[in-house]
Amino acid sequence: MEDEVLIIENLEKIYAGGVHAVRGVSFKVRKGESVAIIGSSGSGKSTVLRCINRLIEPTMGTIKLNEEVINNPLADVNEIRSKIGMVFQSFELFSHLKVLENITLGLRYVRGMNKEDAEKIALEVLERVDMLDRIDAYPGNLSGGQKQRVAIARSLAMHPEVILFDEPTSALDPELIGSVLQTIRGLADEGMTMVIVTHEINFARDVADRIIYMDKGIIAEEGPSEIIENPKTERLKEFLSAMDDE
Amino acid sequence: MLSKEDRILSWYKIPKSSRILLIATTLIFIFLTPNLAEGYESTWNKIEIDSTNDYNAAVIDSNEDAWVFGDNGIIIHGEKLTNWSIIDSPTNEDILTADSNDYMVAAAGTNGTVIYKEVLSNEWIKKNIDAQTKINSIAINNMNEIIIVTDFGGIQILREGEWSEIDSLTLEDLYHITFENERGLIAGSSGLILGSEDNGLTWETRETPETISESEIISIGYYKTNRAYAITSDGQILKSTQEALTTTVGYSWSIKEIESENYSTSLNVNLTSLEILSTTKILLTGENGYVALSKDGGNIVTPQLFPDEFDNQKINDVAMINAFRGIIVGNDGNIFYTENGGENNPVGFEVVDFNDFNEFVDFTKDNLLEGLKATMKIVLIGILLGFFLGIVLAMCKTAPTTLKQMIESDLEKTLILFWLVIPVSILSTRGSGIGIGIFTFLAIIGVTILVDYYINKNKTEKEGFLGIQIPNNHRNKVIKILGLSLLIGIPISEEWGFEGGAELIYSALNNFHDFQLGSDTPKLSAQLGYIFAPIGDPIAFFRLIIGIGLTYLGVLFITANGSYSKKRFFAGKLFLLIIVWSIILTELFIGFDLNNFNLSIASLMKYLFFLGMGLFMTRRIIPELSWKNLEPNEFNITIDPWRLRPLNSLATLYTDFFRNTPLLVQFMFIHFGIQLGKHIQNIGIDVTNDLTIISSYLGPFDSIFAPMIDYVSDSLFGPGKRSYLSAIFALGLNSAAYQCETIRGAIAAIPSGQMEAGRSIGLTYMGTMRLIILPQAIRICIPPLGNEMVNLVLNSSLASVIAYTELTRQGKLVVAITFQIFWTWGMVMIAYFVVTWTLALLLRRLEEKTRIPGLGISGGN
Fold first, then answer.
1. What superfamily does domain A30-53+73-245 belong to in CATH?
2. How confident is the model at residue B517 (pLDDT cuts 50, 70, 90)?
3. Is the ipTM of this complex over 0.90?
4. Are the Cβ atoms of A18 and B776 closer than 8 angstroms?
5. Which residues contact residue A39 at a Cβ distance below 8 angstroms, ignoring those fewer than 6 apart?
6. CB-based contact A88 B772, cutoff 8 Å
């Protein structure tokens, strides 16, 4: 289809130690769609996510962003990455820079903007994540939820085609999760294309248009968010019940 | 951050009145330091005699009696240089010259007047020559014969009571004659010097410099048989030394470049007489009351003071008993006596009592301060060099670039590196030395990166490098050709070309000694004594390392098949087995000497032990070697040569070398071994000379630039700067190796997520390093870097071994003069402490200032 932003075909990854983490994964992400990847630890979901912006080089398979193959040695990887936002589990804010500088860094040194323009965009995105009051704070002085919102703002500032979320709430205290989820939900409502790896089943059901369940390196089940209520495969049933027990 | 008022050691905590007191005390300390000598006084004492004749000549005989001769035949006798009297003269003619030896005193003057007396007799004998000419100089030779010289080349000798002429072979005027044993010298006009080896019977011309062919040599003299000096009337000093053991002094003469006259050849004084007091100490007299002393053979000539009333009188002759006691005589009845070699006496000078701490400090403060400055200079530049090189090395060490990446995605860059940058750098190194070579290397890399940036600036899709893109179907061929060129080099002619890895190894091995197998020391263990034998020439060692590297790359590239992946050594354990058996058999056979075979229990046990171990290991390994079991990851050695990181390897080589050799040895190797200081100095002088030429085209701006260029040239590459340059590099290069490891540790401490985050917003690897990783890493490693810098300051004391006069060496010199060991080394120690402590304080401030709020445990707020 025309509006497919991201196409992943037969993705495989074998790590240097011989671990076969991803064994042939294919899926597509349409424009404005949010896809949640769930699965137990070691199922390969984070590897898939990192392969998309080539933080991990895939062993086999193709990844296309807007019809363009991006896992090709001759492709300009920095250009591609600037079109794909990424939000990390452990935030990874640049701790020596203030909140505002964290966001303007990419705009100034990748997009080549001047300081004033970059700050204008930074203030806009900080408003979207409701962090305008802490622009002069250092990341070390922020709470986990605030950090993650700044990290989301950092991705947004680059106007990405798609944002990848790598377990955005796993490192957060339960009472702080709400604000982050609300921000992400807001983005989904605005029509941002997102791929979210998460443990939050309820959140996945709320936000995601489609859910992919991965197990042992392959996609075990895939479908709209209703599959959470009515899992077809035995493995997803087991996974969901294990999550409920927690 | 503490505020100014909160700090424990705060200037503002001192009460205001106390502050003023503190400053005043400091100033008093600085300014109330007594000086050394305040002035000088002459050591010449005028001898009062009732005569105002002009005195032309003076001699002191072997009785230590002085004889002064002057116009109108006046003769003055100075008995033991104390009782002075005018004695009756046998002549009324002007006496111009005189000489004496152990046996007699002789004098001569106008109208052929010659008088002489024996030392023991009081009677003057007159023995005029026939020709009524002016006698310029008189001398007595080894056989007590009197020889005189006159204008137009006249020489006459008084032998057995009769005057006879000697052929001088010249018509030049002869001004001075002197003898030392049987050897004689005559000085004359037009730069003429005659020499005789036979008591003056025959004379021959001696070689003098072209530049004095217009000058009149007015006085000449020997010091014993190993040194001779001469002066010209226009102020030049000539020197002759014994050139070889078989020749005598006085054959060849050189003109002195007088250091105290800015290396001019002339003193710009009309000289009259010369007296040589020792090999290097000479006393010169001249017109206008000029008496000058040189203690270093005419390098530095210092005019000496006179009592005021003698100013501007011409001094005609000087006579000394020894280096200290003597007289000078001049016009207008002036005779002066000295007991101090005529050297000025410092006034207000006290003998420095080094046991008095104040005097000790006054005497040594300049030395120690100079030493401290010299130390600071090498330390500051060394720290900068070490820090920046350390960062570069640390980044090389952490660089993820593998050979696979170089070939797979950056083939074009790799080709330009190996086929353009390195060959051109080698060419310029061969042509102009290693410095220019390194400069070329960096310059080409910079230019190509810039050009590439502008070529790809406005393109949406990146195309290769410099617009070159090798098509996919040809890439493998190009890689193989690259491999071949690295392996066998690029031979351009038979004896000229670029050597490849194979040739480098081959030629290097020629300069390696063999292990001397089969020699007198058959046992491997005994051959440890030959530890230096297998190392060979350091250059060969260097070539071998480069050769191995190039061969590795060459073989790898030639065998490239497009996948650039692992090479599995399926026979890994077989390989292991071969190595084990080679070691065992070597040890057994080399230790096994048939000629004196030792059948003791111990040796048998040893052989059995080795054999048993070999068999045991074989038994363990062999069963696994059946081909059925050939599963990867099970027992095979798996090596992926494509995963080698070349930058990391180079940096590791560097740090391993510098961290595993003593700094003292590095100092000596760098300064004396490869003479780095000398090479840099030569390059620097060449560059500044070129700059001077460029600046001379700039017209009016030349007067601005030329002094600047001169200043830089003098202060960096001037004379005596070699050890300075070497010291900077030895310290900097060594410190870089340690700082590299420190910085690398700090980089490793940054979570890998930071790099991922930086890359995920589209920054390049270098961009992330520069903007994200290094700013955090450097903050972390300020304390250990501080350690490293303090070490560098302390290690700078080793520069004293390469004759760089820094603090420690100045300390040694001060101890040598003053013998105050405790104070000297104590002060040197305090000086080092002040420097390092200041440095540590600054770093502590820096650490405080750059601390990121909310990050890390600092113990403070």
1. P-loop containing nucleotide triphosphate hydrolases (3.40.50.300)
2. very low
3. yes
4. no
5. A45, A213, A214, A215, A220, A239
6. no
